[in-house]
Amino acid sequence: MKQIYFFSEGNKDMRDLLGGKGANLAEMTRLNLPVPTGFTITTEACHSYQQNSHQLSEALQLEIDHALDRLSSSTGKKFNDKFDPLLISVRSGAAISMPGMMDTILNIGLNDDSVIALAKNNDRFAYDSYRRLLAMFGNVVYGISEEIFDNVLSETKEINNYQSDLELTTADLKNIVTKFKQIYQDVAGKDFPQDPKKQLLSAVDSVFSSWDNNRARVYRRQNNIPETLGTAVNIQTMVFGNSGEDSGTGVAFTRNPATGTKNLFGEYLLNAQGEDVVSGVRTPESITTLQESMPEIYDQFAKIAEKLEAHYRDMQDLEFTIEHKKLYLLQARAGKRTPGAAVKIAVDLVNEGLIDKNTAIKRIDPESISVMLHSEFAQKALEQHILATGLPASPGAASGQVYFTAETAKNAHDKEHQKVILLRQDTSPEDIEGMVVSEAIVTSRGGMTSHAAVVARGMGSTGVVGAHALQVDYANKTATIEDCVINEGDWISVDGTSGHLYLGQLETTDAIINDDLATLLDWAKEISHMGVYTNADTPEDFKRALKFDADGIGLTRTEHMFFKPKRLLQMRRLILAKNAKGRIDPLEKILLLQENDFYELYKLSAGKSVTVRLLDPPLHEFLPHDDKEIELVAKEINTTKDALKARIDSLKELNPMLGHRGDRLAVTYPDIYQMQVTAIVNAVIRLNQEGFDIKPHIMIPLTNSKTEMKWVRDVVVETIDKILTNKNTTLEYKIGTMMEMPRACVTADKIAEVSDFFSFGTNDLTQLTFGYSRDDVGSFMPEYIAQKILPNDPFQSVDIEGVGELMRMAVNGGRNTNPELPIGVCGEVGGDPKSIQFFEKIGISYVSCSPFRIPVARIAAAQAAL
Ligand code: ADP
Ligand code: MG
Ligand code: MG
What we know:
The chain starts with a strand and ends with a helix. It has 4 domains: 4-238, Dna Ligase, domain 1 (2-Layer Sandwich), CATH 3.30.1490.20; 239-337, ATP-grasp fold, B domain (D-amino Acid Aminotransferase, Chain A, domain 1), CATH 3.30.470.20; 374-509, 3-Layer(bba) Sandwich (Glucose Oxidase, domain 1), CATH 3.50.30; 528-618 and 653-865, Phosphoenolpyruvate-binding domains (TIM Barrel, Alpha-Beta Barrel). It contains 34 helices and 31 strands. Helices cover 45% and strands 17% of the residues. The structure holds adenosine-5'-diphosphate and magnesium ion (2 copies). One magnesium ion binds next to loops.
């Protein structure tokens, strides 16, 4: 098995084998771009390493020897050479990019001898490189905390009153090197290995095992990256951005990763190496200044950036280094971006002819769209005093309580259910768990490509970085700006679009859909087969859903209309009435109220279909429960407290969810459904007389059989016919059923004979298929998921194997009887992208979800159709 590929032997399609970094280094080499020579040890070698009880096999070591010989002959440099020693970097890189999660070591090959060779030309640079190697190697291979090395640097700077690393002299650096070597002795009890070959093998070993470090695991869990991938290792000749003021290092995006705007966006530092730019030790310069300081390099880089973007047909995130005015590329990858930038870039790339609409849709994570619909701060709120301003690293508007460490933030979030904001000088990969739970991430240092900025954008959370006015004091848990002190737990508001920070909780406004998203959603609509409807109980819900371009209403739950106080009283009178006669008056009163509700709702429909479900919940939900309330209601309905209590008791059920509800109420109290149908039809007739053309859809809940459906349908039809005859008019309408009982799914072919449409109520269907009370799952569901007895909560993403099979059976049965039968899904999972994939497969005609989920479902439906 070949375990090593030179960059010249690979290409971009070999990600699985070479990892993303390796595959792209190979691709850039193939494109004749200036990439320092090197080779990649494959992910297969990583698997062998894992199976070989975490040891590098002889075979691999032999292959590494050969590869090193080849590297030497192509670069003319050798390990330990007295004049021109070979120095390399050892870089991790999995198939799916995990920025900063695993380890990289630079300057391997330096030791007490070769540092002298390197120092001949430039001694400061040689010792700067050596101290970097010692710190990285010590941290990655021997697990010595970075802080210990950092402290030595800070002390030296403090004693000499230096502001930046750049002021460290050769003498300082030599001193630091000596101290670092002492740390090896004191902390790890081992020497720094002087043999370059040994350094290399230990580094490879550590990169392979860094796959299993804690922060990498958390990141994989967070991003659904399979544990089995493993990482490749890239060995690459060093180029030196720290070799003087005509050298430097930087990162750049071909488009703005926060907004998507098309222009080169990035940062660099002169006389610096590797991580200096992202780690925030020095605040980098914007790449636009490179245009002035090194115009030829800037132009060359800009051209390469454009070429790579066109080649990959996507926004690229590039790493580059300049060594004595010569440009090198060190990494290219698809750039992480905010959900908003993702949408803008996808739409722009289509308009620029680089990708087609289908590709644009496929690139969007449907779930991330919901982040774009988050609110903004209200204009009025923004007139507040601005506490501080940083760089707008990741857009959004968030308020929360401040914590200064990832750990305290996570605790406050997990245990106290607080909305938290992580406020730090800067962040590092160790902070990942705290960042995940934060509403916003704020740092006082670092630039737009700092760790905090990249991670915030990647997660779609709000981010402001480099707010220099903030003095963050970890020891006292405070952040100070002039005379204002923010303590742990204080509320602040963060505007990631402007970079402003405010004290307290700011008011927010409703979300809007911007032009790019609207365009993308239009394309999604063209592409998808399934319609996307909304669940809406009120005109307000419906209006919001129409703004999000809902195709209509898939579910109106009429019971929600009864919970306003005046109506609740009538509803209670209705329920508590002893007989049909007693129900007449409350029914008449409710009828008028309901008719107006439906009138308002239908009036908004503008040709889109509206499906109203008749009363569904058990009646006891409308009744008073505690003593005080019972007394009040007794007064309201003119009876005694005891009489009322007795009546309530008589209505109590042991299992109300399985009891007297849904169409079972229609069988025992047909007058309730008659009233609701009358309200619907009266409202529609009124509107149609005003010039509308509405064809109401009426939905019967909880149906179990054809006979039952037919019985209820007859009641509904009779009611409608009576009204139409009375008013001497006509009306087109449809009467359909919820599919939420397993029995109904099994007998769907028969039910379809008397049903004009089906709509799956996946909440009840899941509850009844599993036998889980959906109101009580909280006590055991988390453990079922933790123990992997269930892959996920079936109330959030459909259980394809069980519930899904019943649905498939019902679809097939229904369509056997009526090939044109419209079949929708209106349960919670109707807005879940993974479930939507499945619904497309079994031939569902539409999904219905809450207004805010509509754009998510629309993109998911299009992806399902592709
Ligand atoms: P990460 O995945 O964390 O970005 P990298 O392997 O890309 O880790 O490397 C970390 C830093 O070191 C980057 O800034 C990269 O450009 C720099 N680097 C890596 N290899 C070399 C090299 N051969 N010469 C100069 N700089 C390098
Ligand atoms: Mg990198
Ligand atoms: Mg139901």
